[in-house]
Design brief:
The chain is an alpha/beta fold. The protein contains 15 helices and 20 strands. Strands 7, 8, 9, 10, 11, 14, 15, 16 and 18 form a 9-stranded mixed beta sheet that branches.
Length: 492
């Protein structure tokens, strides 16, 4: 990760960025004072801002080379209204514009608030993310100095904001790394091992990895059914990561779909629908990431993250359409489509959470349906909840953190569509409304938590086709930011 630190602005021969608020380029010119440019050079900067018609819109960058022979470049960078999102966009734009500079000093006003620092740092770090299979040369840009005018007192709030950003980004980077990893390497056991490693040495964190024998003995039959088509060394796991701080009053359970590859099983997917299915554990990656971020921030709320992990493979022993499974806790389900496997593994894990962990709130995240992206496009996750207050809090957390969600209805008139002839429920129907029906299936496993549960179908925002703002091409780590922000407010 980039080294980001605070300092006092001074004259430099390296690259410099100056933040430009919407509609007031003159504020940016004031920030140039410590560079000790002559009047002619300052005039050049002013003319330049006018010539390029810099509006200060969030994330816009205009670079002026060598005013007064030094600094090397001045990157005038818009922060829009100066809210966290504006600074995040500025940070992301700078990570790209200054990628090949050896270092960068970002000149900021003395009254820069902490949420601006959080946005700037998150933008810089998230947009400079790269997925690599092996160690390789990092980008030239290694250090960013956030430079305040002389005499500025850098308060604890700013230092804390930088640490919060670091915690969230570290967790998002882990979630992206896990999700980007090709599925030949990414077995359930490999994923579980990565969680064990990430939690190692953090006081208050513990990990439990359940193997197939345990799952069998305890009746996690749906997780086993989904994992049965895969080779033994690629068999299913259930990971339970717990954060138990002293004095916690609330217990939150986070459940994430962890399909390490989704072929569709016997109901095999065509290539177009299958080729990106290594991302089908993005929900599991996000709930693990958010729990690690909460631990790094030492949030005073108990959290249990559950990741039911399985490869939905095609094999001699794969589950078949028409097979019947008894979920953990006893709900029976007819598998009408082996490609609707996410709700199967989640059902077991959610039933376990409700019966054994007795949380105050339960939230699940899953790359659950193609229908989600049809409804909401590439960037926005679908959110389902019976609780207006929980949905409202989660929507606010998403908004503040820079992720996008849209609340969808749990329409009762579709509830009977999942009723089975032979079983309590069926895992697939052919009446459309795919994302809603999957949510209604999961609802069957919420028990007493029905009104204190939220479900995110984040199939499409888990992945980005291009570098876009703070997102990089490939896995986005969607959900780490929303969940962590929500946990911060819940804990407060
Ligand atoms: N993992 C897929 C959903 C998915 C699709 C995620 C595209 C991300 C991008 C899921 O397991 C699946 O196959 N869902 C089926 C459900 C259907 C068989 C009821 C779908 O959406 O077609
Ligand atoms: Mn599937
Ligand atoms: Zn799937």
């Amino acid at each position: 990760m980039l080294d980001i630190r605070f300092a006092t602005a001074r004259s430099t021969s390296g690259a410099v960025a100056v933040v430009v608020p919407s509609g007031s380029p003159s504020a940016a010119l004031d920030l140039l004072t410590p560079l000790k440019l002559g009047p002619a050079d300052l005039a050049e900067c002013e003319t330049f801002l006018g010539d390029v018609e810099h509006t200060g819109s969030a994330g816009s960058v205009h670079a002026l080379p060598r005013p007064g022979r030094r600094p090397a470049r001045v990157l005038f960078t818009g922060i829009g209204d100066g809210d966290e999102a504006g600074w995040r966009a500025a940070g992301a734009a700078l990570a790209k514009s200054a990628r090949s500079e050896p270092s960068l000093r970002v000149l900021v006003p003395s009254d820069t608030p902490s949420d601006a620092i959080r946005g700037l740092a998150e933008g810089l770090w998230l947009a400079s993310y790269r997925f690599r299979l092996a160690e390789s040369e990092p980008d030239p840009l290694r250090r960013v100095t956030v430079a305040f005018p002389a005499g500025t007192e850098v308060g604890d709030g700013l230092i804390e904001a930088l640490e919060q950003a670091r915690a969230v980004v570290t967790a998002t980077v882990l979630a992206r790394d896990l999700t980007n990893m090709p599925s030949d390497r990414k077995t359930p056991a490999w994923f579980a091992q990565r969680v064990v490693k990430a939690a190692e040495g953090v006081p208050g964190l513990s990990v439990e990895v359940r193997e197939p024998e345990y799952l069998k003995a305890q009746g996690f039959n749906a997780i086993l059914a989904v994992g049965r088509g895969a080779a033994a060394e690629r068999g299913p796991r259930l990971v339970e990561l717990s954060w138990r701080p002293r004095g916690a009053k609330r217990h939150v359970v986070l459940v994430g779909k962890g399909i390490t590859f989704d072929t569709g099983g016997v109901c095999i997917k065509p290539l177009a629908g299958m080729k990106l299915m290594r991302k089908d554990m993005g929900g599991a990656a996000a709930v693990i990431g958010a729990t690690l971020a909460a631990a790094a921030m030492r949030l005073p709320v108990r959290i249990t993250a559950l990741a039911p992990l399985a490869e939905n493979a095609l094999g001699a022993d794969s589950m078949r359409p028409g097979d019947v499974v008894t979920h953990y806790g006893g709900v029976t389900s007819e598998i009408l489509n082996t490609d609707a496997e996410g709700r199967l593994v989640l059902g077991d894990a959610m039933a376990y959470a409700v019966r054994r962990l007795r949380p105050d709130v339960m939230i699940d995240l899953a790359t659950l349906t193609g229908a989600q992206g049809v409804a909401l496009g590439k960037r926005t996750a679908a959110m389902y909840s019976h609780s207006d207050s929980l949905a409202g809090d989660l929507a606010a957390a998403a908004e503040a953190s820079g992720e996008s969600v849209w609340r969808m209805p749990l329409s009762e008139d579709y509830a009977e569509a999942i009723e089975g002839d032979l079983t309590d429920i069926v895992n697939s129907t052919d009446i459309g409304a795919g994302s809603l029906l999957a949510a209604l299936y999961l609802r069957e496993f919420t028990g007493a938590l029905r009104e204190r549960w939220a479900h995110f179908d984040m199939s499409s925002p888990a992945w980005s086709d291009s570098n876009d703002g703070e997102l990089t091409k490939g896995a986005t780590g969607w959900g780490v930011r929303t969940l962590t922000r929500w946990l911060e407010t819940t804990a407060a």
